[in-house]
Amino acid sequence: QVQLVESGGGLVQAGGSLRLSCAASGRTFSSYAVGWFRQAPGKEREFVAAISRSGGNTYYADSLKGPFTISRDNAKNTVYLQMNSLKPEDTAVYYCAAEEVYSDYAKTFDEYDYWGQGTQVTVSS
Description:
Elements: E1 3-7, E2 10-13, E3 18-25, E4 32-39, E5 46-51, E6 58-60, E7 68-73, E8 78-83, E9 92-100, E10 114-115, E11 119-124
Parallel strand pairs: 2-11
Antiparallel strand pairs: 1-3, 3-8, 4-5, 4-9, 5-6, 7-8, 9-10, 9-11
C-alpha cells in the first residue's frame, strides 16, 4: 500500500521548464512501477511516461520523448518528471500512479492500483 502526493506544478511561459515530483509513503517503494499521466480540459487522460521499479526501464509518449524525462530516487521515495521546452498544449492536470510489481517492467496503460491527487501545469503563450 502506498500514498502518492504530486507537487511542482504551476504557471510557466512557453519554452520554460518544470520538474514535477511524486512523493510516496510506503515501506516498499522500490517494488512499485510508476507512471505519469495527464488530462487536459475536455480530453481523455493520456499516458505521459512510465518507469520500472529499478529505474532501468523507461517509456514515453512518442511526442514527449526528449523534452520530458522520468526518473526516480528510491532512497527518497520519489519519482520525478522533468519537463523542458513546455508548450501551451502541455497544459493539463498531471497525475502519478503506482502499482506493486514483481519484475522490472514499466506500465504504459492506466490500470494502476494507486493514484495521486494531481498537480496543475499551465503553460502560457
